[in-house]
Amino acid sequence: MAHILLVEDSPEVSMSVREILISAGHSVEEAANGQVGLSLLKGGSKFDIVITDIWMPEMDGIAFLKQVRSAGNKIPVVVISGGAPNAPLTYTAPLASTFGANVVVYKPFEKEELLKAVADVLG
């Protein structure tokens, strides 16, 4: 199974996603924003996939994606987003794809949707 970096600022969403992934046999490390996520990616852990929110404090998911891709990192990325008051999902998904997301999953999502996205990007 995969070793997954989860970048999500909401403790409730993070806990839910972590439980889904662990129940499917994956291991998960968490980061509360993109800055922490970048530190973990550059650290000693080897991740198979990243799952990231878009709208987060300190460093959002778009800035995170830009830095990951500009460093030449080809790690598969699944974006999970519910949009934002000033940025609906019709804006979020194309933006995430433009900056290197492999798949976008819309919040709220079902367990099966998330696990399918993970399986799809892992091949």
Give your account of this protein's structure.
The structure is a single chain. Helix 2 packs parallel to helix 3. This protein is 44% helix and 19% strand. It has a 5-stranded parallel β-sheet, sandwiched between helices. With 123 residues, it is of the alpha/beta class. The N and C termini lie close together (12 Å).
Q: What is this structure's SSE topology?
A:
Blueprint: E1 3-7, H1 11-23, E2 27-31, H2 34-42, E3 49-52, H3 61-70, E4 77-81, H4 89-98, E5 103-106, H5 111-122
Parallel strand pairs: 1-2, 1-3, 3-4, 4-5
Helix pairs in contact: 2-3
Descriptive keywords:
Rossmann fold, globular, 5 helices, alpha/beta, 123 residues, 5-stranded parallel beta sheet
Mean pLDDT: 92
CATH hierarchy: architecture? 3-Layer(aba) Sandwich
What is the 3D form?
globular
Helical content (DSSP H or I, runs of 4+): 40-55%
DSSP summary, beta strand count: 5
Biggest sheet features = 5 strands, parallel
- State the CATH superfamily name: Response regulator
Q: What is the number of helices? A: 5
Order of helices and strands: EHEHEHEHEH
CA-to-CA gap between the ends? 12 Å
Strand content: 15-25%
Assembly context of the chains: single chain
Q: Give the uncertain stretches in residue-range form.
A: none
- Overall tally of structural domains: 1
